Amino acid sequence: MKKLISSWDKDQPLPESYIFPPDKRPGKLVVPRCNAVPVIDLGDNRTDLIQQILKASQEFGLFQVVNHGVPEKIISDTRGVFKEFFEMPAEDKASMYSEDPRRFMLITSTSNYDREKIHLWRDNLRHPCHPLEECVKFWPEKPTRYRILELLCEGLVIGSGYFEDKLSEDLQLSVNHYPPCPDPSLTLGIPKHCDPNLLTILNQGDVCGLQVFKDEEWIAVEPLPNAFVINIGYQLQVISNNKLKSAEHRAVTNSSDARTSVVFFIYPCGDSIIEPAKSLVTATNPPLCRAFQFKEFMANFYSMEGKADLALHPFKLET
C-alpha cells in the first residue's frame, strides 16, 4: 500500500504534500522536556488523589498516572504487538487497509487523505471496542477506565456514577505510528488540537513526541516507564462548566526513532445529551454551554477542519 508511510523507503525525502505552512511547523526550536506536567500516583489516599486530579485537570487538562495497576508485562506485550504490526511487510498491511469507521481501520494521515491539503506524518490503526464480542470479529488476524472518572465525579461533587452508561459507552482503541521523518521541522504527526471525547488514556512508550500547549508555549511531556497520560476531552470541559480544561496538544516527529503511541478513547454514544452538570450551575455560576447531543458536537467538530478554538463556539451561551 503506497499510502502507508511505514512501508516507504527510509531514504525517501519528505514529500511536498507533508510540509506544513511556516506558521504551523514545529521548526528547529528545541522544546524542553518539563517536569511540571503533573505525575499522579494512583496508590495515594483518595482525598489527596481527588485534589491532585482536579488541580491537574484545571491547570493543564493533562496529567500522567503511575501505580495504576496495569501490569508491566501487559503494557510491554501490547506495545510489542503493535510494533510487530507496523513492521509487517507492505503486502500484509495493504490487505487490511480500510477507511470504514464502523470496523477495523488502517489509514495513513487521516480518513480524509484524498481531500486534505496537507498530510500528517503518521499511520493510524483504529478499531472500536464496544461491544467487544462484535468488534473483535473485525480485528486483524496478524500478528498471532472508570476509576479516574469516578474520582472526578467526587471532586466535582456531581454524584457518583454520573459518567456511567451512555456518557462513557463508546470505547475506541487507536494506535499512532510515526516513522522516522526526513525533516521533522517541516511537518507534524498530529497538529495542535483538543480531544473531542470525554477522556483519553495514552501510553506514549519511551520516545518523546507529545507536547502540550500551556501559557503560550509548547512543553514536551516526558515519557515515563509504564505510565499513562490522561487527557481531559471537550465533553468533560462542558460537563464541568469549564472547571476542567481540555488540553491543547500535538505530536511532533523525529529523524531517528520510530514512535508508537497506544491510545484509548472514551466517548459518549451519539445520542447522549451533553450539558453542564446541574449541581455545578447556580445563579452566580450560570451554564456556559447549552445542552446538545454528542453527535451534533462531532458533526461541528469535524467541519472545523482543525480549528480547535471554534469547536465549542456554536454551543456557548452568552453570559
- Describe the strand arrangement of the main beta sheet, using strand numbers: 2-3-11-8-13-6-5-4
Integer-rounded radius of gyration? 20 Å
**Helix percentage range:** 10-25%
H and E order: EEHEHHEEHHEEEEEEHEEEEH
The largest pleated sheet is described as: 8 strands, mixed
- Number of alpha- plus pi-helical segments: 7
Mean pLDDT: 85
Structural features:
319 residues; alpha+beta; eight-stranded mixed beta sheet; five-stranded mixed beta sheet; 7 helices; 20% helix
Could you describe the 3D structure shown?
- With 319 residues, this protein is of the alpha+beta class.
- Helices cover 20% and strands 22% of the residues.
- It is built from 7 helices and 15 strands.
- The strands form 3 sheets. An 8-stranded mixed sheet has the order 2-3-11-8-13-6-5-4. A 5-stranded mixed sheet has the order 1-10-9-12-7, with no helix packed on it.
- Helix 1 (46-59) links the parallel strand 2 and strand 3 (62-66).
- Helix 1 packs across helix 5 (146-156).
- The protein is globular, with a radius of gyration of 20 Å.
- The protein starts with 32 loop residues before the first strand and ends in a 16-residue tail after the last helix.
Give the helices and strands, then pairings.
Elements: E1 33-34, E2 39-41, H1 46-59, E3 62-66, H2 72-86, H3 90-94, E4 105-108, E5 123-128, H4 132-135, H5 146-156, E6 170-178, E7 190-193, E8 199-203, E9 210-214, E10 217-221, E11 228-232, H6 234-239, E12 249-251, E13 259-267, E14 273-274, E15 292-293, H7 294-303
Parallel strand pairs: 1-10, 2-3
Antiparallel strand pairs: 3-11, 4-5, 5-6, 6-13, 7-12, 8-11, 8-13, 9-10, 9-12, 14-15
Helix pairs in contact: 1-5
